[in-house]
Design a protein that fits this description.
Glycoprotein, Type 4 Pilin; alpha+beta; Dna Ligase, domain 1; six-stranded antiparallel beta sheet; 2 domains
Length: 209
Amino acid sequence: MRPAPAPAPAPARACPAPLPRCEPRSRPPLPVARGAGATPHLRGCIGTLEPTEIPRGLKELALTSALRDRRFPPIGHAEVWQLHCGVSLLHSYEGGRAWDDWEPGRHGVVIRFPDPGSSRSMQATFLPEIAEREGWDQRETMEHLVRKAGWRGGATGDVLASIDLTRYQSSYCALTYGEYKELSRLPSVREDSTSGASSGSRPRLPCFS
């Protein structure tokens, strides 16, 4: 997750993939990311590729992203007002693909391949927006993914041929702290957060509606 540039965030954010219906107890895979400050930078990102119950899984991953991402110090109270928090719901999984059978900007990818040195299984993933944001083509993305998986020998022809690729799509939703505060003033949000009960009519977010 990355912060929105000051002074004002974009009002609506949605990925080009069709939005799945997300009932309160649905179980999509769920990465959660957080950013902070006027200059966009990652401040925490934790997720799972396993089906995850909403809202419990979202709460757990949000706390883990904020406080227990080992790459960053825990988010402090003074940073909260600068936060820009995003959630990607992963869907439309298609397995058994070749390493180049996916479209940057539309598909996220999970690669699995045997470590050429030990034959142990290696795995890594990038969300759909990563390759497009970085300007990578399919081959460049594979180079970064095999390194992320832990292989330092590069995406050679043999490594590429051994890759079992799963592609997926993602629906993305993000809020700044200011947008969250505006939504939290609505009675349905306040009732849900204090009592845990459903108040009937819920506010519509820019996505996941």
